Amino acid sequence: MINKTPRVRFAPSPTGYLHVGGLRTALYNYLFAKKNGGEFILRIEDTDRNRFVEGAVENLIETINWVGLEYDEGPNKDGNVGPYFQSERLDVYKKYSNQLIEQGDAYRCFCTPERLTALREEQQKAKLPQAKYDKLCLHFSKEEIEQNIEDGKSFIVRLNVKHGENVIINDIVRDRVEFTRDVIDDQVLIKTDGFPTYHMANVVDDHLMGITHVIRGEEWLSSTPKHILLYNAFGWELPEFAHLPLLLNADRSKLSKRQGDVAVEDYKAKGYLKEALLNFVSLLGWSTSDNEELFNLDDLVEKFSLERVHKAGAIFNIEKFDWINAEHLRKKDKLEILQMLKTELTQSKYKDLELSDEYLLLIVEAMLERVSFVKEYIDNSPYFYERPTTYDEAVIKKRWKDDSVELLQKYIEKLSVLNNPVKEDFEIALKQVAEEADCGAGRIIHPARVATSGVGIGPGVYDLLFILGRDEVIERINDALKVIPEIKANIS
Ligand code: GLU
């Protein structure tokens, strides 16, 4: 139930690229906001200086813009609650951490890394279920603390987790999840460099930015009790939480780079369409009641609901992704595909060919049902861009007969007298040859295909011949007649 206008956020840490899981989070946030007339905010969580990667933010924003998940507030956009880069909000976190210290809900910890390591080791040896800070610094007097600060001792700020009831999350996806309060560590809120931790900055910003629903990956579920304690300490109203299921490889292990690409930009580079990417990613953990599978972004906005997000991990099935890509490609306007093919060609070995739009458009149409990606217009049918240099031996073995040479010569004769033949003319001529020779059309079709394309599969043979054009077909058949009989002799 949504009783206020949602304000949701995608809050990535710029690690260098946008992970497909991140895209799923961004998409679900976007869909939820749009569906319910709310706002979608992009907030860059860049407070971990050790993980700073040059250009990562630009890359991230570029990828989000490319897929078309337009945010209402965020970097380079107006908004009343910015800045939207956490690194520009350090004073804000400091102010709120001081407030917690004053209230007794947080404290400065001066322990050295050596002491903390020793403590952890001791606790591990004692087989405590969970290593926890022992609150030593909580008990320092005001004077001791002031002295430490004066002495220039570095410190962190920790949340003071007090004894109390278990922490309960009423998650939209996962329902009720209960965490034992006693195992929650005195979480670091501010690090020695003065930067906030994820927990501190995330909660403060979600509150100050008016976030109503926190929609994020399940890997953050274990952080949520700490966040709830923070909200409670501040006396702030909790947002709703929705933790999205994990993304899994086919073997149910966590989706990882080792088993395939995880960066959106890798899929973009491989030629996946953004429509397909959004469609595929939308189904990683969500479905409609009748299990529809093909959507554009508008359909998704209309149909999406958090209530239909699954609990179970979502398997990343690349075959399905390819199928979705093919389906979206087929729905595109032919002229748009033409433009994409032209771009692909400029990056291929055929970049210097001068091919007319008319010619390429015929290829687009003839191959549409046979490709899943624009670049397959090139890879799957190189014979449209260059003459065959090899001929498929298996096809020759099966399809090239003793009379093939003669039949093809007759076909050439018929073609050579045709003026500007259209597709049907190629068919009529071929059938005439077959009739005169009293054989089936297949007897000519297969040799003609291998002679002109080098292979045994492709678009309809009359499409192939018509697209190549009369003169080219004649020349290719003549070339093939010089070599195929010899190949046939060698393999028989
Ligand atoms: N900065 C976190 C991330 O990189 C945000 C998690 C959250 O949405 O709370 O995913």
Give a written overview of the molecule:
The protein is mainly α and 492 residues long. The protein has five domains: 7-75 and 198-248, Rossmann fold (3-Layer(aba) Sandwich); 91-190, Glutamyl-tRNA Synthetase, domain 3 (Alpha-Beta Complex); 257-331, Glutamyl-trna Synthetase, Domain 2 (Glutamyl-tRNA Synthetase, domain 2); 334-381; 393-491, Orthogonal Bundle (Arc Repressor Mutant, subunit A). Helix content is 46%, strand content 9%. The chain contains 20 helices and eleven strands. The protein has helices at 20-35, 56-67, 90-103, 113-125, 142-150, 198-208, 224-234, 264-269, 274-282, 297-303, 318-331, 334-346, 357-367, 376-379, 393-399, 404-416, 423-437, 442-453, 461-468, 470-491; strands at 7-10, 39-42, 106-109, 156-159, 167-171, 175-179, 188-190, 213-217, 240-244, 247-248, 314-315. The strands form five sheets. A three-stranded antiparallel β-sheet has the order 3-4-7. A two-stranded parallel sheet has the order 1-2. The longest helix has 22 residues, at 470-491. The protein is elongated. The N and C termini lie far apart (74 Å). The model has no long low-confidence stretch (mean pLDDT 95). The structure holds glutamic acid. Glutamic acid is lined by residues 11-13, 45, 198, 202, 216, 220.
